[in-house]
């Protein structure tokens, strides 16, 4: 297999978002969980998205895992590697976007790296280096209350400079709008000053197409699904990849019981849970009991098992920013987050033992914990449920045939859970 594009995603929902974008743009794509084992049978593809769970771990570990993924991808012929980060630039001043970018840049010897989290289809745009989420700057968006990495600065030139060893410059929208050559010239100017990374403005998909053309000439880029779209279109338009038709289905029906798990506390997910209450039984977990080790996962399974024969169920830990802050102040942010993620993994494991083969998971960290526990090595990409969220068919899972949907916290419409299950047959 010779890859036209290699991708390293810093969480599992982000990886399926990117795999969805690449597939829709005509690239045959698989999503792997971690660096694939040598015996994992992969189909002939144009792009591999290696999913890591590296967004919120210690920076040194994020660097070493990303590097292992890069080595694997380049070993399969990938000239260009995209480091996929969140479209809301989720990170802390200690990392991990900057440290991973610095290392991958040094490894491939790039003078300067294009960086943009813009993803206009989901309302993420970058102007004068400032990231907007819909109509508001990042620091006024719900991301200011994120449980693990609250975002308080919308100026990405500043944010990335605090995390990176290199100086960070800007390629502004006027330059991007002018032409690919103008972007090339601006990058050369910045690189000439010793600047190693350039936050790049983008508001429309056509901006990302220009950025993608230039990025594809480099060895490394950093961004969200928008730059993935730009790179994919560039690979197709320059004839490096022959466009495949986007998958129109997910293969044979899987059937059997279905369930949803929500660990995301985003506003979008809270609304989706409220909506689901009207159409399926919903159990709200008690985070205090989880952190105290009070058998909350077993309670959830005892609640869910007898209901599965009648239709889907939803189990949620999700809570308002105030309730999350209260739990975190009592137990610490990481300890609370980790305990809740592990409880979600326990519940997922128990649900699969009870016969569930169609599973929707909301939240990147939550999805990471669940997919790891279910020992799923990879996914084929099926139909799109909502922007950034495809139906995934598990490859090589211990439980056999399974369909999953891994939803980024902020993605999906109000009826997301029933929309997803409606497409997962
Ligand atoms: N009630 C709660 N109190 C405190 N923390 C919680 C609670 N419910 C969930 N969490 C934790 O909040 C974090 C949510 O992160 P997760 O990545 O799953 O969702 P997200 O950030 O909204 O999604 P994404 O990363 O896809 O945007 C997890 O660590 C989860 O365990
Ligand atoms: O880019 C996004 O917003 C998503 O793919 C994601 O990474 C959320 O975890």
From TrEMBL:
Keyword field contains Signal: no
Highest taxon in the source lineage: Bacteria
Boundaries of every Four-carbon acid sugar kinase N-terminal domain copy: 5-229
InterPro entries: 4-carb_acid_sugar_kinase_N, 4-carb_acid_sugar_kinase_N_sf, NBD_C, NBD_C_sf, OtnK
Domain Four-carbon acid sugar kinase nucleotide binding: 260-417
GO MF terms, alphabetically ordered: ATP binding; kinase activity
Keyword Transferase listed: yes
Catalytic activity: 3-dehydro-D-erythronate + ATP = 3-dehydro-4-O-phospho-D-erythronate + ADP + H(+); 3-dehydro-L-erythronate + ATP = 3-dehydro-4-O-phospho-L-erythronate + ADP + H(+)
E.C. no: 2.7.1.217
UniProt-listed SUPFAM superfamilies: YgbK-like
Keyword line: ATP-binding, Carbohydrate metabolism, Kinase, Nucleotide-binding, Transferase
Function: Catalyzes the ATP-dependent phosphorylation of 3-oxo-tetronate to 3-oxo-tetronate 4-phosphate.
NCBIfam families the UniProt entry points to: OxoTetrKin
Family according to the record: Belongs to the four-carbon acid sugar kinase family.
Protein name: 3-oxo-tetronate kinase
């Amino acid at each position: 297999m010779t890859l036209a594009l290699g991708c390293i995603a810093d969480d599992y929902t982000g990886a399926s978002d990117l795999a969805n974008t690449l597939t829709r743009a005509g690239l045959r794509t698989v999503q792997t969980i971690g660096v694939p084992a040598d015996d994992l049978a992969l189909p002939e593809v144009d792009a591999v998205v290696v999913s890591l769970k590296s967004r919120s771990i210690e920076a040194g570990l994020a660097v070493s895992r990303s590097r292992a993924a890069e080595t694997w991808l380049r070993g399969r012929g990938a000239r260009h590697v995209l480091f996929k980060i969140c479209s809301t630039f989720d990170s802390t001043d200690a990392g991990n976007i900057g440290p991973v970018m610095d290392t991958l840049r040094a490894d491939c010897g790039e003078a300067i790296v294009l960086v943009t989290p813009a993803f206009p289809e989901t309302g993420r745009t970058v102007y004068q280096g400032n990231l907007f989420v819909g109509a508001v700057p990042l620091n006024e968006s719900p991301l200011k209350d994120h449980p693990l990495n609250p975002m308080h600065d919308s100026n990405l030139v500043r944010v990335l400079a605090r995390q990176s060893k290199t100086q960070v410059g800007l390629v502004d929208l006027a330059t991007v709008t002018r032409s690919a050559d103008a972007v090339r010239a601006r990058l050369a100017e910045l690189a000439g000053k010793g600047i190693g990374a350039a936050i790049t403005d983008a508001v429309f998909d056509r901006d990302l197409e220009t950025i993608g053309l230039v990025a594809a000439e480099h060895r490394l880029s950093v961004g969200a699904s928008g730059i993935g779209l730009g790179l994919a279109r560039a690979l197709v338009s320059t004839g490096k990849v022959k466009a495949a038709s986007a998958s129109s289905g997910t293969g044979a029906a899987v059937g059997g019981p279905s369930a949803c798990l929500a660990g995301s506390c985003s506003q979008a997910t809270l609304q989706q849970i409220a909506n689901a209450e009207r159409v399926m039984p919903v159990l709200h977990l008690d985070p205090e009991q989880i952190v105290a080790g009070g058998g909350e996962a077993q309670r959830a399974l005892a609640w869910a098992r007898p209901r599965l024969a009648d239709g889907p169920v939803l189990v949620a830990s999700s809570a308002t920013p105030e309730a999350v802050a209260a739990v975190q102040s009592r137990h610490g942010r990481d300890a609370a987050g980790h305990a809740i993620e592990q409880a979600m993994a326990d519940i997922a494991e128990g649900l699969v033992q009870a016969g569930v083969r169609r599973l929707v998971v909301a939240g990147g960290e939550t999805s990471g914990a669940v997919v790891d526990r279910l020992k799923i090595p990879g996914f084929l990409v099926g139909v799109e449920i909502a922007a950034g969220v495809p139906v995934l068919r598990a490859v090589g899972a211990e439980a056999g045939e399974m369909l999953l949907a891994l939803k980024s916290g902020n993605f999906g419409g109000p009826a997301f859970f029933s929309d997803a299950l409606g497409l997962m047959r």
